[in-house]
């Protein structure tokens, strides 16, 4: 008897995990999801893990549990290489303390989806690797939080504020700044009374304005909220070097920092370059066609931050967002079965639903689209609900309608909500 075609998905992030959940349980194919981590984390809230403000029991979901619930196989391991000729992928690990490791192995595929995400580049800036924190994965967020707690306690003892300098004013930088202001009260001696000497936050941007690429009204709204949170901002300031105790601008000005955060830009995951001879854009992302196929092989597709897709007639490729990764997962969940049946699916069309930023107690703000325009500025409860809905939809997709509905409701009414500083691991 002929075995079912095997769909192998590399990376269980915003795009890959959704695709596995959508394709899992189908009768006409078998699905395997690979990730180096044992649990799925929703990356758009990584800054909340870093700040310690995350308050959801659904913020991390075991891939092993999801696989059982949604009818796919999960294989934990690091993707090493792809062999196009034999249609196989080589994995290593996971590695356990004491030098123990799982045996290296190979998985074959009929269709392969690369969804390995991206990484913050240092643009060749000296000292980023040695002295700055980047927020690319859970381990980075955990390291940041441990440092932050130590610096805040020290600041309270010595009476000089802890200085956090964040380089890059995109979503990661601005949201992290706002969430740090929210948790600082955990270190006040007198609750409700904010000392002036406990935390100084500086957000530095190389471009002339905060949040490059955002509309002027959104930018102004974010700036006034950051001002209200007492987050200092500096634009037109290119950072040339990160040192052990500060960041140094191209004009030589030094900004003291107890913790420096590097949150400038995004490129494709550097591991992509070692996988196979893909065609890359200048940000190291795999170039895909209108059906999200790579030029290396029509059997290999790529989505999310690992992929570079430029819609017909557009001047630039789509931005690397969870919104885009999720829409590409929805698309492939219906396109791959068609491809396996020898049919040509319709092209992928991105529906831009706008941009939302959550600034902790300063509220959420964003621009959402109606029709073909993204010109509706939203604030307050509506923006907050819209911001959370992206993750809720994602949880719903991963967990399924019934279980997802119950779990989301339980999470919503959880008495553990609202913690200012959770020292979770
Ligand atoms: C702080 C922050 C805030 C953000 N806010 C928003 C927002 O508000 N809205 C929005 O739309 N987007 C937001 N984003 C962007 C969004 O998180 C990403 O665009 C999205 O997660 C990309 O999804 P992905 O599936 O391509 O990759 P990811 O979600 O990054 O997943 C990649 C997966 O691949 C795995 N992996 C990596 N390398 C290997 C390997 N060698 N072997 C095995 N597994 C591997 C990783 O463990 C991970 O699970 C934000 C990002 C950050 C950091």
From TrEMBL:
A GO MF annotation of the entry reads: NADH dehydrogenase activity
**Is NAD found in the keyword set?**
yes
Q: Which residues form the FAD/NAD(P)-binding domain?
A: 6-329
Database matches in PANTHER family: NADH DEHYDROGENASE, TYPE II NADH:QUINONE OXIDOREDUCTASE
Q: A Pfam family this protein belongs to?
A: Pyr_redox_2
Q: Which family does it belong to?
A: Belongs to the NADH dehydrogenase family.
InterPro entries per record: FAD/NAD-bd_sf, FAD/NAD-binding_dom, NDH-2
Under what name is this protein listed? FAD-dependent oxidoreductase
Keywords from UniProt, A to Z, are:
FAD, Flavoprotein, NAD, Oxidoreductase
Q: Which Gene3D superfamilies does this one have?
A: 3.50.50.100
Q: Read off the lineage from the record.
A: Bacteria, Pseudomonadati, Pseudomonadota, Alphaproteobacteria, Hyphomicrobiales
